[in-house]
């Protein structure tokens, strides 16, 4: 009996160990594919940024159009934004049965919204724009780093990524209670994208923010970025729900996002940021950055001012010599050296501050005249601008340094190794080690960091000797049963208490094996096979490089090496091989037969020629993002003017000359239904025809 018990115990431990290994492999697949997609997004954005940086518009109209298309949301004047998003002129029809808002908001408005969204009702566009307008006004008065205390409430609840999963937010409020004077919440970014109810989450959070401005705190995440929203679904969601006023709502949301605070400090001891830190993170700098200047954190590098001045001079018809002279004059006029007699004594600090403000205002007006910006208007004073005005002794940072600070706290991830290095997996931010964490904690007298940004199977995870806590609140993120959501509660002792949950009812009916392995593993390998199929041509070439004798067979070891060299996902391919390669006689693989099986599996779902299907699988996300970038007004259609200006941008990079008539013919050839616009299916069909002709 004793031997039997030991044998059963050994079998059970082996079984559990194998389950855990399968779970970890499944998790690695999901995360590798997710991060590779983020890397593609950043590469695509860098490509467009490169085109913009090296594009010289031929006219003022062309410059303005390209600027509006690719720099959407930046430098929007207050009056222009309010005029564009004029909610007061919108009438709410009598037939409207959804929730109604009146300002200032009351707790009853928030609870009414929750009930309405549970009933799948939609808030009228007038109320949405009004809410965004009031939210923006409130956020503009907030500091970059919010400071809260556990003295004024029983505890502080911190929630991580929600990613458009409204059921998770409902469950958090059901378990923990609604925000109130005694119930403080911090929502740590990534409210939108991927899920189908991102806009409802924003509406609920913004409503509670206005009802309880001292108890609800919102941090910006890396998905509160309009360039990221183009790829991951939020832009599309808004336009589908609000077909008439969707553009106005998106414009306002873009502007609201850039005003979200960057971090939160609890009792000056716990720092809450969305992504992480780096060895150059400087909280003093973060406190003073004008955060609203960074509408998209992906867009960090700007054209050199000198290049822009040269282009402006050329547009105005001046030759290069005149432009050079004008550029020198502009440099002199933009950087005047005030005479000592002009500046008041530093002893009178108030008088000196007024003089500095007046001098700066004069130079701003000169800059506006230089770049032909008319109708200059006074900008409302905000918290960050007041900080920068009063702290005259503060160092002056470059825009690149400020951008790097924001990029790091929104995109970075912790790593177990010491040091700090570039985050090549995501394509943005950095990896920071326990030594970097210890240095920041010691420098600012902190106890630990709370961050989000990464999905964790249990909803939370400690690392760096329990000094970094990751909290993730979107349950079933990759697949039903893939992970729990969690939130953390902190009392005056700052000891974290966790609450875990799964919002999807189906997840509770699954067995442990189904929830952790079978169903999730199946979904992961299906996504991985699609990824492999999308790189069929490159894989075939890599396999042939190992098949020196042309036998059509390679070893399984070479198979694993070749697959990693093409996909670069960092996966344990030898361990995954039994799930991907069904038959391998004598330890060798007939690779062409294996590639044909992959193609057959995908073709059974999509009745398209195999080689073309491969290309579309590989490029569909990029093509859809490019389409949305070109479709500046988010109408779902590319107009002639949008196509024309984008073609001018591409042709300048590729050195292809095409007349206006030629571009018109090109548009007509893509516009298959002859309605004067190009929809996404026509865009994809044109891509398919070009590929076939090649």
UniProtKB/TrEMBL annotation:
Origin species, per record, is Tinamus guttatus (White-throated tinamou)
Family to which this protein belongs:
Belongs to the PPP phosphatase family.
- Kindly give the PROSITE patterns that the UniProt entry links to this protein: EF_HAND_1, EF_HAND_2, IQ, SER_THR_PHOSPHATASE
What is this protein's function?
A: May play a role in phototransduction. May dephosphorylate photoactivated rhodopsin. May function as a calcium sensing regulator of ionic currents, energy production or synaptic transmission.
Top-down, what is the taxonomic lineage of the species of origin?
Eukaryota, Metazoa, Chordata, Craniata, Vertebrata
Protein name (record): Serine/threonine-protein phosphatase
Q: Which cofactor does it need?
A: Mn(2+)
Alphabetized UniProt keyword annotations = Calcium, Hydrolase, Manganese, Metal-binding, Protein phosphatase, Repeat, Sensory transduction, Vision
Entry keyword Metal-binding: yes
- Uppermost EC category: hydrolase
InterPro entries from the entry?
A: Calcineurin-like_PHP, EF-hand-dom_pair, EF_Hand_1_Ca_BS, EF_hand_dom, IQ_motif_EF-hand-BS, Metallo-depent_PP-like, PPP_dom, PPP_phosphatase
Q: Write down the chemical reaction(s) this protein catalyses.
A: O-phospho-L-seryl-[protein] + H2O = L-seryl-[protein] + phosphate; O-phospho-L-threonyl-[protein] + H2O = L-threonyl-[protein] + phosphate
Is the Hydrolase keyword given for this protein? yes
Q: Name one Pfam family in it.
A: EF-hand_7
EC numbers:
3.1.3.16
Name the coiled-coil region(s).
none
GO terms classed as biological process:
detection of stimulus involved in sensory perception; negative regulation of MAPK cascade; visual perception
Gene3D superfamilies noted in UniProt: 3.60.21.10, EF-hand (1.10.238.10)
List, for all copies, the residue spans of the domain called EF-hand: 534-569, 618-653, 658-693
One Gene Ontology term of the molecular function aspect: manganese ion binding
């Amino acid at each position: 009996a004793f031997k039997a018990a030991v044998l059963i115990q050994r079998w059970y431990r082996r079984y559990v160990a194998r389950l855990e290994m399968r779970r970890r492999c499944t998790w690695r697949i999901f995360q590798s594919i997710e991060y590779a997609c983020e890397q593609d997004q950043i590469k695509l954005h860098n490509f467009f940024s490169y085109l913009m940086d090296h594009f010289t518009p031929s006219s003022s109209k062309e410059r303005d159009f390209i600027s509006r298309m690719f720099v959407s949301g930046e430098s929007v004047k207050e009056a222009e934004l309010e005029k564009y998003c004029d909610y007061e002129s919108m009438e709410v029809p009598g037939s409207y049965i959804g929730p109604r808002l009146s300002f200032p908001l009351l707790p009853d408005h928030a609870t009414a919204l929750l009930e309405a969204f549970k009933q799948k009702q939609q808030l009228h566009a007038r109320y949405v724009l009004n809410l965004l307008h009031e939210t923006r006004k409130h956020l503009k008065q907030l500091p970059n780093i919010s400071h809260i205390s556990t003295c004024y409430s029983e505890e502080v609840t911190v929630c991580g990524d929600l990613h458009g999963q409204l059921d998770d937010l409902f469950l958090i409020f059901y378990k923990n209670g609604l925000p109130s004077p005694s119930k403080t919440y911090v929502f740590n970014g990534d409210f939108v994208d991927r899920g189908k109810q991102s806009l409802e989450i924003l509406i609920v959070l913004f409503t509670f923010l206005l009802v309880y401005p001292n108890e609800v705190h919102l941090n910006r995440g890396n998905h509160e970025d309009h360039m990221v929203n183009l790829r991951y679904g939020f832009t599309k969601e808004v336009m589908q729900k609000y077909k008439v006023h969707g553009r106005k709502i998106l414009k306002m949301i873009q502007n609201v996002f850039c005003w979200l605070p960057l971090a939160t400090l609890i009792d000056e001891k716990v720092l809450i940021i969305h992504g992480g830190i780096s060895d150059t993170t400087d909280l003093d700098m973060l406190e003073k950055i004008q955060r609203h200047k960074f509408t998209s954190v992906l867009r960090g590098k700007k054209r050199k001012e000198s290049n822009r001045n040269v282009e402006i001079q050329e547009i105005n018809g001046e030759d290069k010599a005149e432009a050079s002279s004008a550029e020198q004059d502009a440099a002199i006029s933009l950087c005047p050296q005030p005479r000592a007699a002009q500046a008041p004594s530093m002893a009178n600090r108030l008088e000196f501050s007024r003089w500095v403000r007046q001098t700066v205002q004069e130079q701003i007006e000169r800059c506006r005249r230089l770049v032909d910006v008319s109708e200059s208007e006074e900008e409302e004073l905000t918290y960050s601008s007041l900080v920068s005005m009063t702290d005259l002794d503060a160092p002056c940072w470059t825009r690149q340094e400020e951008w790097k600070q924001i990029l790091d706290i929104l995109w970075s991830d912790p790593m177990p190794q010491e040091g700090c290095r570039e985050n090549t997996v995501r394509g943005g931010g950095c990896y920071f080690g326990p030594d970097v964490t210890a240095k920041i904690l010691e420098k600012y007298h902190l106890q630990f960091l709370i961050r989000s940004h990464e999905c964790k199977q249990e909803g939370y995870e400690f690392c760096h000797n329990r000094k970094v806590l990751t909290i993730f609140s979107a349950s079933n993120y990759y697949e039903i049963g893939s992970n729990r959501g969690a939130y953390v509660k902190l009392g005056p002792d700052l000891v974290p208490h966790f609450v875990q949950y799964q919002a999807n009812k189906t997840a509770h009916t699954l067995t442990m094996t189904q929830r952790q392995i079978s169903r999730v593993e199946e979904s992961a390998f299906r996504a991985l096979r699609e990824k492999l199929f999308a790189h069929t041509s490159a894989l075939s070439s890599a396999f042939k490089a190992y098949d020196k004798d042309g036998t059509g067979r390679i070893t399984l070891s070479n198979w694993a090496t070749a697959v990693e060299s093409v996909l670069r996902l960092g996966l344990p391919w030898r361990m995954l091989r039994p799930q991907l390669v069904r038959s391998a006689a004598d330890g060798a693989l007939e690779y062409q037969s294996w590639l044909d099986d992959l193609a057959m599996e995908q073709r059974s779902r999509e009745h398209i020629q195999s080689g073309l299907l491969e290309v579309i699988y590989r490029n569909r996300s990029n093509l859809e993002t490019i389409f949305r970038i070109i479709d500046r007004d988010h109408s779902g259609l590319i107009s002639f003017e949008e196509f024309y200006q984008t073609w001018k941008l591409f042709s300048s990079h590729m050195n292809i000359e095409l007349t206006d008539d030629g571009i018109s013919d090109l548009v007509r050839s893509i516009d298959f239904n002859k309605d004067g616009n190009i929809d996404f299916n026509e865009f994809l069909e044109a891509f398919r025809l070009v590929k076939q002709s090649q």
